[in-house]
Amino acid sequence: MVWFVNNQFQVISGGGVPYNVTIQIDQETWDACDADVQTGVLNILAALPIQLLSASGKGNGIKQEAQGLEFHTQTNKRLQFPGGTIKDRTFIFDRYGKGWGH
Asked: Judging by DSSP bridges, how do beta strands 68-72 and 77-82 pair with one another?
């Protein structure tokens, strides 16, 4: 697999203690994303620490949904990590589609 992103980032959840995770974004999946989704994801990656949001969370960040994690941006489509949880230490975003919370 070729990665668009394969780096460590500092994240923070509701507990308020920052920690590091590896975020990987598949290049082919990234190329399929609309420009507004790409912009939203890049803005989230640049705003450290990255906010980890619960299913009821609002705003931009990486959000836990029942189906996995997704970059939560102000768009209808999302970059997604099926089956992922905020407890994982590596987030592998390899799917792009309609937001699970919609």
From this structure: antiparallel
